[in-house]
Amino acid sequence: MDLTVLQSRFERRHPRSKSFYEKALLSTPGGVHGNLRHYPPFPLTFEKAQGAYLTDADGHVYVDYFLSYGALILGHGDPAVRMAVQEVWEQQGTSSFGAPHPLELEMVDTLKSLLPSLESVRFTNSGLEATLLSVRLALAYTGRTHLAKFEGHYHGSHDHVLISIHPAEAPHEARRPAPKAASFGLPDYFTDHTIVLPYHDWDACEDILNQHKTEIGAVIMEPMMAGFVPADPGMVKRLREWTSQHGVLLIFDEVKTGFRVSLGGAQEYYGVKPDLTTLGKVVGGGFPIGVVGGRRDILDLCSPLRSGQPLFHSGTFNGNPVSLAAGLATLRQLRQPGFFDNMVKSAMKLRDAIESLSQAYNAGWSTLGVGTIFNLVDTATDPQGTAKTARRLALDYLLMEQGVFSKPLNRFSMASVHGPQEIDQTISAFERAFAELTGRHLRS
Ligand SMILES: Cc1ncc(COP(=O)(O)O)c(C=O)c1O
């Protein structure tokens, strides 16, 4: 299907979004407040949302699978989250103390019960800040200079991890990936002090790690690349063994997978205990947050009670009561019996339907993921579903026309508000999109 045709249809359907974009371009680089927010020909402007639905500036309504990068696991405007936020105002009278308050203890206890590897916890304001603190802690704790990370894994937009964030196009050929700066302006220090590991090849990883074992302080990984490409469980276990054996810390960046792959995150799914864990997105219930948790002896480095100089960590809004109240209201619901499992069932129902339709239309798509996150996979050319192809973009334009939004080229995140009606609506949207893409019409 010709992309230019679909893009001009998109432009015609979205004159107000286009006009907002053109105005934004005059005073904001690329018209967006984050590079990942751009997609061609311009990103949609949204004006409203409710439950599972988003409404754009031109009045089109979408079932939302983007959910603010997966953060809104209960959908938009969940009543319990709204009430919790309201209570913060009514009972505390402020949105921020910048000082200790009781919700901090409640959230720490909740996190410790869901993720037992979290002996000690610090709050930050974003996933970026969480991974930054985790790397600083790990390098300080080990006294080593290098960070190992996996090719294709994203850990937020700070210098030490903005390296080799794009997956290898031919994973089997990338046995020794060279560190590639993913940003203009990154000091050479960071590429010089980063070891890049191939995600799908443990033997190659082990060779590389062995070569650098005295320099590497930590291995950081997304336990599922891009949130939906699982690692080989055997590889994760061997990585845990290797890191323990060589005094290297293992950091699980669970900003995407936390509370989504399973309630206890990917560490519960694999049965592996990392030294440090970073969280974000879901844990803030739709408000900004990040969390670093893990071994007490490592976290204690940033205690102001430490004798000698502590490792520095601070932030005006760390532990913000609004984020913690919203996050606690979210986690309380996720923990209700059957609640999480129902979301996983809905995800499976949707994935099965997409795969059956794709087979019926010979459209060439399958799905990949665990729990409440999945992505579409181009069966013939891209078995790990990370390639940004014109074929996928075409499907995304058609899905948007049919009222389904995941953000072009992005994964699908489920929310509890995706009920039978929303799932059926999405399945029909896929059917119409596959029919148009393949030129086959199986239903009259
Ligand atoms: C695995 C992972 N780590 C870190 C981050 C950065 O989080 P934030 O966007 O909150 O800074 C993200 C964001 O998508 C992420 O997916």
UniProtKB/TrEMBL annotation:
Q: What CDD domains does the database record attribute to this sequence?
A: OAT_like
Cofactor (UniProt): pyridoxal 5'-phosphate
Q: Name one Pfam family in it.
A: Aminotran_3
Catalytic activity annotation = (S)-4-amino-5-oxopentanoate = 5-aminolevulinate
Which GO BP terms apply?
porphyrin-containing compound biosynthetic process
Q: Which GO terms describe its molecular function?
A: glutamate-1-semialdehyde 2,1-aminomutase activity; pyridoxal phosphate binding; transaminase activity
Regions annotated as coiled coil: none
InterPro entries the record matches: Aminotrans_3, Aminotrans_3_PPA_site, PyrdxlP-dep_Trfase, PyrdxlP-dep_Trfase_major, PyrdxlP-dep_Trfase_small
Entry similarity comment:
Belongs to the class-III pyridoxal-phosphate-dependent aminotransferase family. HemL subfamily.
What name appears for this protein in its UniProt entry? glutamate-1-semialdehyde 2,1-aminomutase
Q: What is the native source organism of this protein?
A: Alicyclobacillus macrosporangiidus
Q: What is the lineage of its organism?
A: Bacteria, Bacillati, Bacillota, Bacilli, Bacillales
